[in-house]
User: Which sequence fits this backbone?
């Protein structure tokens, strides 16, 4: 069943159920996130903190091991909104007619192209014909990597082998020489013990070269069902406010965040401390005009590179809840 048809039938069923619920049920919200990648740390701290509850929200967290699963859950009405959703996947779903909206930019692309120390590979152009590890096909990392490789190095999708996996698996692939290079988040590179690597490029540098701007692309964004944000814009605003408060608290309570990551995310103390040291580089909850312009530029670059297909409209980006959230204490 196509996502659009699945989404439409789910919305009809949800509307019938909503009519029988008391008014206070509007404050309930189901939040999904990818628990094996870029949104893991923020999600763990968000679940352990009181900030959403303090907004009067009754939250059900739904965690997914697959990067693209939150989008399928949105389409099937299994969740109401997601943060850290793959930007490329959201664009593709929206262009296919799935009724979703974007309400925030949440994870900047703090990603590096690396090779084992001593590798003959020195530049991105040397990746032609090589095995390159990165997040699975369809993820924003994979799409951004493919876009900059095509635009800056002339390497098309069929000119290299994409080896997909989560960050820990990709690091293992490098150690075991199952890939020639990898696109890894800076936090993963900093956590590597068994292997020394050499950086041959970053997403930020390559994106700025490609687009001739100072913009940094986003790999994770906030997406919400269109019906939900239309009926419960105030609830989405409260979620955004809770996310922003969680980020601010995490920046000033780093020891507590380390403890949460050790307990909830099963990170060793060393890895948790590395993660916290990059807290503000990896996480963001922003939806200023510049963020929306960057996301539109990403979509344009993705389409021009052939990484994704389809148009998006301006009304994909809903800024009202973010504006309202900035006034919430």
Assistant:
């Amino acid at each position: 069943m196509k996502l659009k048809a699945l989404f439409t039938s789910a919305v009809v069923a949800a509307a019938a159920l909503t009519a029988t619920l008391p008014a206070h049920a509007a404050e309930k919200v189901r939040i999904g996130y990818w628990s094996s990648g870029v949104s893991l740390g923020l999600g763990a701290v968000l679940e352990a903190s009181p900030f959403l509850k303090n907004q009067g929200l009754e939250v059900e967290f739904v965690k997914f091991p697959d990067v693209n699963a939150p989008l399928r859950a949105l389409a099937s009405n299994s969740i109401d909104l997601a943060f850290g959703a793959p930007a490329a996947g959201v664009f593709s779903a929206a262009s296919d007619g799935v009724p979703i909206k974007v309400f925030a930019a949440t994870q900047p692309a703090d990603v590096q192209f690396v090779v084992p120390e001593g590798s003959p590979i020195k530049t991105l152009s040397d990746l032609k014909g090589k095995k390159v590890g990165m997040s699975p096909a369809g993820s924003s990392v994979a799409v951004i990597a493919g876009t900059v490789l095509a635009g800056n190095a002339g390497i098309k999708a069929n000119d290299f082998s994409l080896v997909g996996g989560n960050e820990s698996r990709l690091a293992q692939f490098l150690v075991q020489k199952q890939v020639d290079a990898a696109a890894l988040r800076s936090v993963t590179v900093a956590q590597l013990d068994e292997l020394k690597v050499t950086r041959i490029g970053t997403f930020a540098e390559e994106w700025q070269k490609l687009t001739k701007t100072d913009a940094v692309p986003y790999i994770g964004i906030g997406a919400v069902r269109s019906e939900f944000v239309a009926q419960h814009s105030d609830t989405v605003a409260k979620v955004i406010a809770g996310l922003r408060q969680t980020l601010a608290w995490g920046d000033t309570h780093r020891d507590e965040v380390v403890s949460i990551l050790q307990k909830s995310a099963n990170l060793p103390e060393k890895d948790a401390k590395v993660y916290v040291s990059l807290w503000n580089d990896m996480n963001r909850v922003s939806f200023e005009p510049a963020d929306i312009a960057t996301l539109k530029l990403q979509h344009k670059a993705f389409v021009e590179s052939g990484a994704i297909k389809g148009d998006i409209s301006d009304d994909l980006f809903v800024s009202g809840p973010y504006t309202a959230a900035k006034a919430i204490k």
Remarks:
- The two ends are 43 Å apart (CA to CA).
- Residues 105 and 286 are 5 Å apart (CA to CA).
- Confidence is low (pLDDT under 50) at residues 10-26.
